[in-house]
Amino acid sequence: MMLPGKGFTKTIVELIEGCRKSSNVSLSPSLVEHAIRNKVLLQLLRTLDINDSLREKQERGYAVIVNEVERISHALKGLSYAFFKLIKPISYVPADVDLLIDVNHVKSATHEIMGLGYRVAVKDPYCLTFTRGDSIIDLYVHPSLGGVIIINGQRLLEHSCTMEFNGVEIRSLEGYAEALVAASHAIYKERIYTLNDYFTVEKWASKKTLKLAQELKCEEALKTAIELNWKIRLGALETPYKIPLPTWLVMLSRKFQTDNLTRATSKGMLKTLTNKRIGELLTSKLTRETY
To answer: ∠91-180-278 over CA atoms, to 5°?
Structure first.
């Protein structure tokens, strides 16, 4: 049973961190929905040792991602790239596979990915989206929003290493860099903070993360994420947490002022807003409750 006065967010955090006995919690539809919206369902099911059709579906989805990551990793061998938003301190099933690529290797990477049966579905100034059936790959030169760079992807690539992902050796960002990406992506791009972000920042943020945030002008995103984590630990904040629109716009404004790369690319934002797909994307940022 849920304890009086405790929200689903606090319950999930305590379960995953081992601070609450799973025998005291029932896996209700509401708890499952909360875990889905927070992108931590697979980790919760594994923590509770639930073996049902829902767990089987999650594990199948995870296996598909592992298989695709292995194929992509082999195809891009020899290129300068890194998976990101993939390896986390928790297990989850990502909706797509995100890659950072050296700007000089975009053409080669595109050729190799298309050789795996993918086609280019969307072309953005700093990202190519590939699809093959239900599988999606986003190939980034820089993580961006509406054609505006929110973090320097080429600098991020300098903080990559070889890691193991379910028995597969891949190139991925270092943990401290992933923590910064989680904070920046949630705060600047999505405007929504989930428990997936919480665990990534909570477990992997370090002095190296702070130094990198200062270099890439993302200090406010990291600071905000740390403050949200503190409230989550206290049980004072339910997630997914949607950043108030005025607060978000002020933070973006300060990002434009302090980050030369963001400011330089923001000049083309009005042009990209006329693009129907980008307009729909930005509208989604203003209205949705999770991502």
So the answer is: 90
Stronger pLDDT, 6 or 160, i.e. the higher one? 160
Tokens representing 74 are: 């082999």
The whole-angstrom separation of Cα 55 and Cα 43 is: 10
Residue spans of the domains in the chain: they are 8-287
Query: What does DSSP say about strands 97-101 and 135-140: parallel, antiparallel, or unpaired?
Result: parallel
Contacts of 214 (CB under 8 A, 6+ apart): none
Residue 159 CB partners (closer than 8 Å, separation 6+): 173, 174, 176, 177, 212
Per-residue pLDDT, 19: 81
Place of tokens 């949200």: 228
Q: What is the distance between the alpha carbons of residues 43 and 1, in angstroms, rounded to a whole number?
A: 20
CA 163 to chain centroid: 18
Residue carrying the six token digits 């129907």:
276
Tell me which residue has tokens 């903080």: 159
Q: Where are the alpha helices (DSSP H) in the chain?
A: 8-16, 29-37, 41-47, 53-75, 106-114, 153-156, 175-184, 195-204, 207-215, 219-234, 245-258, 260-266, 269-273, 276-287
Give this prediction's pTM: 0.91
